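Listing S7. Sequence submitted for prediction.
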Amino acid sequence: MFAKIAYYILVYPISLLPLRIIYLFTDFFFLLLISIVPYRKKVIEGNLKRSFPEKSSREIKKIRNQFYRHFTDLLAEGVKNLSISENELRRRLTVQNPELMTELFEKNQSVLLVSGHYNNWEWLITGQNLLFKHQAVGIGMPMTSAFWDKKINEQRSRFGMKILNSKNVRTAFEEMKNDVFATLILSDQSPGDARKAYWMEFLNQPTAVLFGCEQMAHQYQQAVVFFVLHKVKRGHYSMELKLITDNLSSKSWGEITEMHTKLLEKEIIRNPQFWLWSHKRWKRDVPADLESLKLEQKSKFEAKFIPSQHEK
């Protein structure tokens, strides 16, 4: 009941205000974060220190405060996302090289659009179906609050995005096998099972990376396109696309995961303040038998996918 009251009495009415007014609320929150209420300060600074061991305490603090600045902008933009119009969203979110996706669509090629929680991913979720000819698809985990889960997904899908439950992806993909669609994947979350993840070096530390993107690409023969959202100015983003592959038979085990993760890493190093440093990215312990685990994973992958590729 409280969630429903908060949404209709407070959050949604605020979203109807011009974004520049909503920023005033979050500007005040930013001042609180850097002075009185340092949200997840230990998590943020710990992540930054491990990722940038060469940086001084002063440099780490500067990035942390820049992150807080960006984070509060995301809060304002997230609220605005609940009611943003199609025209305003198109004006604030553009694509630098949409021809890449157009070419894949004309080849009847479905796509996995992969990146991470870098810049404003929520606007992309809402606006993806406006940007490309491919049917937009998103994969979501149900939220704890049934009310907020329903409301958020209603807003995310109002311009045509099709939201799939993470537990029903395989069934949904089989049902859409004759369609041409682009599935949005944010691959920088901490995997639920360290032994099913792909382990690699990321931001100067061993990191478990979700392997689902690579598996789906091979299983459903979908092209993989990495994207990055650049912050042009406050409240305006530009999306850049990079083709990882549209020829799955040319990629060996782990190659796709390595490529899209390293591309994300490059963007984070370039502008670290725009990544979501407040999440506990490195909470999985490295398996003691990592080398033998990798050999086992590689063997299973090749047994499942490589033979079918050679038969074609």
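Caption to Listing S7: primary sequence and predicted structure tokens for the chain studied. The two ends are 56 Å apart (CA to CA). The chain has two domains: 1-83, 93-276+294-312.
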